[in-house]
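Let us work through a complete example step by step.
Step 1: write down the sequence.
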Amino acid sequence: MSQQMAYFPFIYFIILTLFQAVFRDEITWFDNVMVAIIMYIIIKFVHWCMVPCDWSKKKS
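Step 2: predict the structure and record it as tokens.
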């Protein structure tokens, strides 16, 4: 599931850029790229938080 979610920021970036190209005078590249990067980092962090820690390895 995480691998599928990792593509979401890139799809969001492409759709948002195309939307701005069609309906606006200019494309806000910096905003689009930064939102995609932040979304990617958040998705990776959430996936990392869902992996349980094996405490028995740290006790020995």
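Step 3: interpret the result. The radius of gyration is 17 Å.
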